[in-house]
Specification:
With 184 residues, the chain is of the alpha/beta class. It has one domain: 4-Layer Sandwich (Metallo-beta-lactamase, Chain A), CATH 3.60.15.10. The protein has five helices and nine strands; from the N terminus they run E-H-E-E-E-E-E-H-E-H-E-H-H-E. The two termini are 28 Å apart.
């Protein structure tokens, strides 16, 4: 699934490319996937396609929200009921953020709208200018530490999964209704 207008980038590389718009629902391998709004520019410069930025809610044994690139928006409250896991961006490219992205504090505030059982932070400490992560490792790792602290302050009932690259996130159907994380 890709936002409407983005299919040409992937056709020929994947067998099944489906373009979707906000509100579209698709069934994939027994899972329901719904395209949700996102507050981010859909323009891909310099010559990429233009289309809406989207998030996705995946319904199956568990209910997950993948926010994609977005800033916090009031409609997150409508996405939230019954979420097992929210996968939220907490940074951008390099040490600074431009519009359409959540910083750690804004991502933690999004938890008050979404109310997931658990959250996993993404989109931090990866695409940095060459060499900067070695020179200023503190800037590279700070978003996750800040997010963990902010999430604990504003949404203490939400479990925060901290995963290293290559780790797995396992969800079990425990009787208390909480999901359990196990890193591998």
């Amino acid at each position: 699934m890709v936002p409407a207008g983005g299919g040409r980038l992937l056709r020929g590389q994947f067998a099944d490319v489906r373009e979707v718009a906000e509100g579209d629902r698709v069934s994939i391998g027994g899972l329901g996937v719904a395209a949700t709004p996102a507050r981010h520019s859909g323009v891909r410069l310099p010559f990429g396609p233009r289309g809406p930025a989207l998030g996705y809610v995946i319904d199956g044994e568990h209910r997950l929200y993948f926010a994609g690139d977005t800033d916090i928006f009031a409609g997150m409250q409508r996405i939230g009921p019954g979420l097992d896991v929210a996968i939220l961006p907490i940074g951008g490219w390099g040490p600074s953020l431009r519009g359409g992205h959540m910083d750690p504090a804004r991502a933690a505030a999004a938890l008050t709208l979404l109310r997931p059982r658990s959250v996993m932070a993404i989109h931090w400490g990866t695409l940095w200018p060459i060499g900067l992560s070695r020179l200023r490792r503190d800037l590279f790792e700070a978003p996750l530490r800040t997010f963990v602290d902010e999430a604990a302050a504003v949404a203490p009932d939400v479990r925060v999964a901290v995963l290293d690259p290559g780790d797995a996130l396992e969800l079990d159907g425990s009787s208390d209704g909480w999901s359990t994380f196990a890193a591998r």
